[in-house]
Design brief:
The chain is of the alpha+beta class. About 60% of the residues lie in helices and about 5% in strands. The protein has 22 helices and eleven strands. The strands form three sheets. Strands 1, 2, 3, 4 and 6 form a five-stranded antiparallel β-sheet that branches. Strand 2 and strand 3 form a beta hairpin. Helix 15 packs across helix 20. The longest helix has about 60 residues.
């Protein structure tokens, strides 16, 4: 049963949609054509509130509904190829142009978190936000040392809004699993649980700072990617202070073109950065929408906002790498086998059938640049294949899939001629050589050598103990065997006695019956 607080949130969502005129858009769809007359019951029909373009109305609705809906809009904004142009252009504004909260509120939060005034913490502080997003907003400042920094401040009362929205998502997921068979295969409740963990982690800016430091360390002295340095003395749970960077937003194609950016190299490096984070470091930036990515001309990336990161288990990482490489090599049988081995499809699945289905979906998109691939059609066909073979969605991979879609969307904007497969394949081949080849196994053995050396003195005792244990086990087995022989003999003896007793009793009963028969008394 839906809780009252969740029900009130649902009513509020419907009211916001109706206020911005989205009820008209919904009722125009084919699904609701039969009840289109209900549009006349909407206040918007009589008050004329639907004069704004639909893209603006959708953006304003998402802004009013809160951070989870803004996140959803940000994700969609990276896929302009899947959206009408007017809607895509408006959703781009959700990346860093969400309406800000008052500067006075930001000041109170900062002073409360730091335990000092703004003047004590900073030589200068700009009250006008540099950018404002769904979870926090950013101000520029200068430290007393003269260093230029940005100050990220968490939105007030955001936790309550997120909890109510996540509770609503759980209710929808439970209803979906109850009434829609595909939702159980898609593991809707588990996906919402994974999303809840991710979004709540984003509310702790100390955790975000630690994530940024880890990725900065992984890409130290890199020519591909730069991560700004965290200023730890002034970083708290609701306030993050870090080095200010200067670059061109990756979505500003005109500015990049004027600056003679190397679009081909940027697109290729984007793919390489993604695979490096996932497979070399097993720690990846999972919120790579254009509002968080900048370019230092001509071809270097600058990244911010590490509230959402992802990692994989060793097993998932290996299976994923093998799947990618087999896919790039057109080895669809291996792809099918690994899906069965990993449990992603039922063990009863026929490999040949699954192989043929994967080939039919994937083969048409090979050897084509991004601009010639319809990912909407590809995703639809992959979903149909998954349904046919009862493929179970892996919640732990959802973040990775979202990030891959973001990367592909960025690549499509920067350099539509990019051959995604040929760019990624060499990286994966090198990764396999480093991780699975003979030299990798030798390195693994050498790394364990100190541990093995420490245990060498114990080996004779361990061997002696093993031999003694084996001897004791043999003695016990022999003892049990002798007991079994005696038990068998005892059972045979008991069986003989029981048989003679039964025969004797039967004979006595038969004799008694014969003596009592009429006509046999003498």
């Amino acid at each position: 049963m839906i809780r009252p607080k969740t029900l009130m949130r649902l009513i509020h969502i419907n009211w916001v949609m109706m206020f911005h005129g989205l009820d008209e858009i919904v009722l125009k769809t084919r699904l609701f054509r039969a009840i289109r007359f209900l549009a006349y019951c909407s206040p918007n029909y009589w008050l004329g509130r639907t004069t704004l373009p639909r893209g603006v109305r959708i953006r304003k609705t998402l802004e009013d509904l809160g951070p989870i809906y803004v996140k959803f809009g940000q994700t969609l904004s990276t896929r302009k190829d899947l959206l009408p142009e007017d809607i895509a252009e408006e959703l781009v504004k959700l990346q860093d142009k969400v309406p800000p909260f008052p500067a006075e509120t930001a000041r109170k939060i900062i002073e409360q978190q730091l335990g000092q005034t703004l003047g004590e913490a900073f030589a200068e502080f700009n009250p006008t936000p540099l950018a404002s997003a769904s979870v926090a907003q950013v101000h520029t400042a200068q430290l007393h040392s003269g260093e230029q920094v940005i100050v990220k401040v968490l939105r007030p009362d955001i936790a309550g809004k997120i909890h109510s929205d996540v509770a609503l998502l759980f209710e929808f997921a439970k209803l979906a699993e109850r009434f829609w068979p595909d939702a159980r295969r898609l593991r809707a409740v588990e996906i919402v649980a994974e999303f809840e963990k991710t979004i709540l982690d984003e509310l702790d800016l100390v955790r975000e700072a630690a994530n940024a430091s880890a990725i900065r360390s992984n890409f130290k002295n890199s020519e591909m990617l730069y991560i700004p340095e965290i200023h730890w003395p002034l970083t708290r749970r609701k306030v993050l202070v870090m080095e200010r960077i200067y670059g061109i937003p990756v979505g500003d194609i005109d500015a990049l073109r004027k600056g003679d950016a190397d679009f081909k190299k940027l697109a290729e490096r984007g793919v390489e950065i993604f695979f490096t984070q996932v497979f070399r470091d097993n720690f990846f930036h999972a919120d790579m929408h254009p509002g968080n990515i900048f370019v230092q001309l001509p071809d270097k990336y600058l990244a911010v906002d590490f509230g959402i990161v992802g990692s994989l288990s060793d097993t998932d990482q290996r299976y994923l790498a093998e799947n990618f490489l087999a896919f790039f090599n057109h080895d669809y049988r291996r792809v099918a086998q690994m899906h069965i081995e990993s449990g992603w499809v039922p063990s009863t699945t026929r490999v040949e059938e699954f192989e043929a289905a994967i080939r039919a979906v994937c083969e048409p998109i090979f050897e084509k640049p991004l601009k010639d691939i319809s990912f909407g059609l590809l995703l639809l066909r992959l979903f149909q294949t998954a349904r046919r073979f009862d493929m179970v969605v892996q919640p732990q991979l959802v973040l990775l899939q979202k990030t891959l879609l973001n990367i592909e969307g960025l690549g499509r904007q920067l350099y539509p001629e990019l051959d995604l497969w040929q760019t990624a394949k060499p990286f994966l081949e090198n990764w396999f050589k480093e991780r699975m080849g003979p030299s990798a196994k030798l390195k693994e053995l050498l790394a364990k050598l100190p541990e093995i050396t420490e245990q060498l003195p114990e080996i004779p005792n361990l061997v002696l103990h093993a031999l003694q244990s084996t001897a004791q086990m043999q003695q016990q087995i022999q003892h049990h065997q002798r007991e079994m022989v005696l038990l068998r003999k005892q059972l045979k003896s008991n069986n003989r006695r029981s048989l003679w007793a039964i025969l004797t009793a039967a004979a006595m009963i038969s004799a008694a019956l014969i003596l009592q028969l009429p006509g046999l008394n003498y």
